[in-house]
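Input.
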Amino acid sequence: MKDISEDAAIRERTIVKTSVIGIVTNLLLVGFKAFVGLMSNSIAIILDAVNNLSDALSSVVTIIGAKLGAKQPDKKHPLGYGRIEYLSSMIVAALVLYAGITSLVESIKKIIHPEAADYSTITLVILSVAIAVKLILGLYVKKQGKAVNSGALIASGSDAMFDAILSASVLASAIIYLIWNVSLEAYVGVVIAGFIIKAGIEMMIETLNDIIGKREDAETIQELKQIICEEEKVLGAYDVTLFNYGPNKNYGSVHVELPDTLTVEEVDRITRRIQTNVFHKTGVILTGIGIYSYNTSNDEAAQMRNSIQQTVLSHEWALQMHGFYADTEQKTLRFDVVMSFDVDRKEALETLHKEIHGSYPEYEILIVPDVDVAD
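Output.
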């Protein structure tokens, strides 16, 4: 059985521990690189140190975000504080972006007013060690981030691995200067700044997508449908919608198709089992399960279903039809159509009403347009 509260506690501890390791490591690198940069009069190395400092600050923000996001729900915020982590990820992205812009300005100043660097053997050794340390740290942080689904940790890990590559470029420019007496470090600083800015923008866009709400991947939706359809009486699962309130904190709703012969008591037992199974296997809390009634003993309704489905799906913008039910005595029929975002929904509904009413003029028709929320 899935223990969500224990998983959340483990996740929080992992984020804090990983972030503390990142803070200590980055602060050590800041000290070494700042010392080497000042001694060698290298703007590229100094900017590399500034970048490490921003990484340390990012880890601090990540810890704060994890702590606040783990707060229990209360009357004011009944669905919890998980989305605070997205805000902390946004702050991390802003810090990275600020570091990149600052680095770019300083590098351009050095290009306009160049100063000769003075590299020593100890400088090259420290840079080499820093590259190795940053690479190992990046791999570790990113792995932990993926394990606990922390966008901030994954971003920090990716940034650290990228820092290792950028530091390698600083080392390469130092070696080129020592061999050929060609100073490239200010230009390398511009390149470093450009990549830092790019990383910051990408992190910000990714976090904005999480805050705004993005399409769930097909595998997640398919997994939920498979779990739901394991229930014996369920003929189909449709309109799966997830509402995210922070990493690993998902609420959802779904429509299930059930035979029209079931009693309300039977439907109640089935929906409760579905909610329990989905929660234990995925951690998703289904807050609502809608019911579609399926004609089981009416041959005329079955023929109507096949005919109308053929008409509906003849349009490219009609992706799926479900929830069909025809009452041949009351002369009513209803169904849902999943429509592409490429079509005007009002015009599409008018088209379907006209076509189906032409075939079944005596019927009252209800067509519900559904949103294409998953691949």
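The chain is about 65% helix and 15% strand.
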